[in-house]
């Protein structure tokens, strides 16, 4: 398990290095790593990690589509966060080959915060073949 403290109401944090460290520390050479976020207002996704404007564009587009304030009925006032987290998803699975994450050249793994700042848990499951 990885614990991450987010610092903004909505943000995407590149956690690729943390997942990579766990794969290496566990000695996984070939298999799969599943990254799971056990929260209903946070998600996880894989996307470009070379240009920070991509993260900005994703967050701003989600905010336009599902604004923080709106005609929502949920009493906690964070319906937008539940919707955004559902769209991003709660998990991703990445192949591991030769002890390395088999991500594309520009890909990174992101924790997506939509109701922060908070302390979030990220669960990792490693399966060897």
From TrEMBL:
It holds the Pfam family YjbQ. InterPro entries: UPF0047_YjbQ-like, YjbQ-like_sf. PANTHER family: UNCHARACTERIZED PROTEIN YJBQ-RELATED, UPF0047 PROTEIN C4A8.02C. Belongs to the UPF0047 family. This is Secondary thiamine-phosphate synthase enzyme. The lineage of its organism: Bacteria, Bacillati, Bacillota, Clostridia, Peptostreptococcales.
């Amino acid at each position: 398990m990885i614990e991450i403290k987010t610092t903004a109401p909505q943000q995407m944090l590149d956690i690729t290095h943390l997942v990579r460290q766990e794969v290496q520390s566990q000695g996984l050479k070939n298999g799969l790593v599943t990254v799971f976020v056990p929260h209903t207002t946070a998600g996880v996704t894989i996307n470009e990690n070379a240009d920070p404007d991509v993260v900005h564009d994703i967050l701003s587009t989600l905010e336009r589509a599902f604004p923080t304030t709106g005609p929502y009925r949920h009493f906690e006032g964070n319906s937008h966060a539940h919707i955004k987290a559902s769209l991003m998803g709660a998990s991703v699975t990445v192949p591991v080959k030769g002890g390395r994450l088999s991500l594309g050249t520009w890909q990174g793994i992101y924790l997506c915060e939509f109701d922060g700042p908070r302390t979030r848990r990220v669960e990792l499951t490693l399966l060897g073949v």
